[in-house]
Design brief:
Chain lengths: 73, 701
């Protein structure tokens, strides 16, 4: 079993994926048919940038669901 | 046939009221302190709690969600409890947020003490009101809230009963226990001890089920009394305007102590009466009485209305008579004095709320008496046909006069009985439904729900039955075909009846927005039924719903349980052929248990399936990895697998989902699939278990 752990930052996919599907982890256990090449390490700063984007998206979703609720009420 | 009795009605009202329990200051303070917001101060009243929270965040950025979490541990405003008002700082000023989801409205009060101007631009309802200081804001909010509460109550009974947030009182300092009241032998009469005691009463009857809170605080022990009267005390004035006394039909509260809080549900329709000490020297907190609409009054009214089909209304006015009947002297009975007096009564119960107008006259003073009985006088005959007496539960009128003219509202369903002089030349008794709704039946609509007052279970009440709440229990009611939004946003729907759902093909939004639901029976959904948003936004408290959707495969489930914070447990839920799981369990921080569902076909919107499901400990998933999806994000399930006394098998649900019930993608030569788990959940797995999971072709992140 291969375990990936970052030296400082975070482990994430080594390819373009939609923001909501991007994985961040401090410890990744690779599937038996997975490869280290599919993963990469990013810095804390890069991670924070992703988080900010996600947060904005969450806020938007929250307002969406709120507005949906208002619409149904 | 089930017929409502008083105890049942009271139990019902209590049950309904329980869902509206108001958070108190202690709880609010503990909550705030637990969240490290020590600067909060609180203002509470019986209607709501205002939290003034210092140094949090401004409105309009994502940090606002922190405040919402602080309040309810959720991120959605739709989940706020009723009766709550929150003050939060915003953009350097303060904002007052009032959210009352049972009344389908909320308010925003924006004010900035520094600039004395509104600086808040975000107002989701455009119904905000502004204030330049805290007290003004609170006053405005209180007024708005009060009007909301009372507005609902007005639907059920005359608006005069509620004015300015309080029962509309007449006020009279008086001595009681003499004169008129004495005529009611055996009845309890309210007595005010001295001129320092004031008696107040409502100008109109308050409906059964109304929550009444009366408070007063003294420095020493003082007496306070609360009672309910079937007739208005106004009737007990003498011609010269002197109050002679009045009849209290039911005592509610009678205590001598320093601090008073009479909190009760109106046991029946009636006039509220309060007697309390008014001397300022001993008064710490002035007497206050507020009535709240709990929803019970309207529910009960509806039930009664449904019990009396309009077509039968004319036959209510039947009469029977039994002359020369001497009734026992028991305080609850009515008596006929002589051969010249005759008792009359209706053949069938007259519905609560009916207005009766009585008039009559004679050449000399003649006594007329009226009362309401729960049981028909017909039941009080002995074996040889002699009437032996009957029980009059509510004496209403007794007066000896040349002329009689008064009206009253039936305090409850019951047989109306009157005794009058048989030679009385003019006497009339008119039954009137002033709002023309009393006898209206809503049974034409399948959506009409009845309530079994004995079993406390809702059932469908069909039209065409006799008087009383006859309940059909055996799944007579079917939902079929397109039932989209059938009960959507029905805030008065408390108990869902049992349905035959086998022909209901589309149940989208069936119960969405039903924020008062207390129980949902197992629903055996039709094979392939559309269930999108079926329980969407079933929010509010108490959170106790257990949902069982039966053994059949559902057709679609988008938003099925999204924001359904009343739902804490989901039993059978079969989704084997579902591809789109958009927000299936989204945004429910109170859901603790999902017995099982299927991910065999799920490929679309998988990462929206869960959000903020922080209480979900037990969750069994079948077919994980079987579809073409290559990523499952379960990081929102921060308690998944963490066992508790209530969820002892939580860890096993994790193992079953990831190992025992998951698909072997390696064997199937499918691409790797990544499962993201929260740190909590990941730490529950042993190295061996992780190995088993990765061997099946799953990467754990």
């Amino acid at each position: 079993m291969i375990i990936l752990e970052p030296k400082e930052g975070w482990i994430t996919q080594n390819r373009e994926v939609p923001l909501e599907e991007r994985v961040f982890s401090k410890k990744v256990y690779l599937a038996i048919n997975d490869s280290e090449d599919n993963w990469t390490e990013i810095t804390e700063e890069q991670y924070q940038e992703y988080q900010k984007q996600l947060e904005d998206e969450d806020t938007k979703q929250e307002r969406d669901i709120y507005n949906e609720g208002e619409g149904q009420a | 046939m089930a017929y409502a009795n008083k105890t049942d009605l009271q139990d019902l009202a209590t049950g309904i009221r329980d869902r509206l329990l108001i958070k108190d200051k202690t709880e609010a303070l503990a909550l705030a302190q637990s969240k490290n917001y020590p600067n909060c101060i609180y203002y509470t009243s019986d209607t709501h709690c205002i939290v003034v929270a210092g140094n949090i965040y401004g409105r309009g950025d994502s940090a606002d969600m922190s405040f919402f979490s602080f309040v309810e541990n959720t991120s959605g405003q739709n989940n706020w409890d009723p009766h709550r008002v929150y003050l939060v700082p915003a953009n350097g000023g303060l904002a007052v947020w009032v959210y009352t989801n049972i009344w389908e409205s909320h308010y925003v009060v924006n004010f900035n003490p520094a600039t004395a101007a509104s600086e808040i631009s975000y107002d989701p309802t455009s119904s905000g009101i502004e204030a330049t200081d805290v007290q003004t804001a609170i006053d405005k909010v209180e007024k708005e809230i009060g009007e909301q509460v009372m507005g609902l109550a007005r639907e059920a009974f005359p608006q005069e009963a509620f004015t300015s947030g309080y029962v509309g009182f007449n006020q009279q300092t008086m001595y009681l226990g003499t004169g008129y009241a004495d005529a009611y032998a055996g009845l309890t009469v309210s007595t005010a001890d001295s001129s320092s005691y004031r008696v107040m009463w409502g100008s109109r009857p308050v409906p059964q089920g109304t929550l009444v809170v009366a408070t007063a605080e003294y420095s020493v022990s003082q007496l306070m009394r609360v009672a309910v009267a079937s007739a208005s005390p106004v009737r007990y004035y003498a011609d010269n305007g002197t109050m002679k006394g009045f009849q209290c039909d039911r005592w509610v509260y009678h205590k001598t102590q320093p601090s008073h809080r009479a909190e009760f549900l109106m046991p029946c329709d009636g006039y509220l009466l309060f007697s309390y000490y008014t001397a300022a020297s001993n008064l710490v907190t002035p007497f206050s009485a507020v009535c709240y609409d709990t929803g019970a009054a309207r529910l009960l009214t509806d039930t009664v209305r449904k019990a009396l089909p309009a077509a039968e209304a004319p036959s209510i006015y039947g009469q029977g008579s039994q002359a020369q009947t001497q009734i026992s002297t028991d305080c609850s009975t009515i008596e006929a004095n002589s051969n010249s007096y005759t008792l009359w009564w209706t053949r069938k119960p007259v519905p609560r709320g009916t207005v009766l107008e009585i008039s009559g006259s004679h050449g000399s003073a003649i006594a007329v008496r009226l009362c309401v009985a729960e049981a028909s006088p017909q039941e009080y005959y002995d074996a040889n046909g002699t009437m032996i007496g009957f029980k009059a539960d509510w004496p209403v009128y007794r007066l000896s006069s040349l002329s009689h003219s008064f009206s009253f509202v039936m305090p409850q369903d019951g047989y109306l009985l009157w005794s009058r002089y048989v030679y009385m030349s003019q006497f009339s008794l008119l039954f009137r439904d002033p709002s023309n709704t009393l006898l209206a039946s809503r049974m034409a609509s399948e959506a009409g729900l009845g309530y079994d007052l004995h079993e406390h279970v809702a059932h469908i009440v069909q039209a065409g039955f006799a008087y009383g709440c006859k309940i059909y229990r055996d799944n007579l009611f079917k939902l079929s075909g397109d039932c989209t939004g059938k009960f959507q946003n029905d805030k008065s729907l408390v108990y869902l009846p049992k349905f035959d759902m086998s022909q209901a093909t589309n149940c989208a939004s069936l119960l969405s927005g039903c924020t008062a639901l207390l129980a949902v029976p197992p629903l055996s959904m039709a094979e392939g039924a559309v269930c999108d948003s079926m329980f969407y936004n079933c929010s509010g408290t108490p959170r106790q719903l257990v949902i069982d959707l039966g053994p059949n495969e559902l057709g679609s489930v988008s938003n099925l349980f999204a924001s359904a914070t009343r739902v804490i447990r989901i039993e059978r839920l079969h989704t084997k052929s579902i591809t789109n799981v958009y927000r299936l369990f989204y945004n429910n921080a109170y859901l603790t248990h999902i017995s099982g569902f299927d991910l065999d076909s799920a490929v679309t919107n998988i990462n929206t399936m869960f959000y903020a499901n922080t209480a979900l400990r037990h969750c069994v998933m079948h077919g994980l990895g079987k579809s073409a999806a290559t990523a499952y994000n379960f990081s929102a399930l921060t308690a998944w697998g963490v066992a508790s006394d209530a969820e002892p098998d939580a860890r096993q649900s994790l193992i079953d989902s990831l190992i025992n019930y998951s698909y072997n993608r390696k064997e199937a030569e499918m691409p790797t699939c990544t499962i993201t788990l929260s740190t909590n959940t990941k730490n529950l797995l042993t190295d061996e278990e992780i190995q088993q999971i990765t061997d099946k072709g799953f990467t754990i992140a």
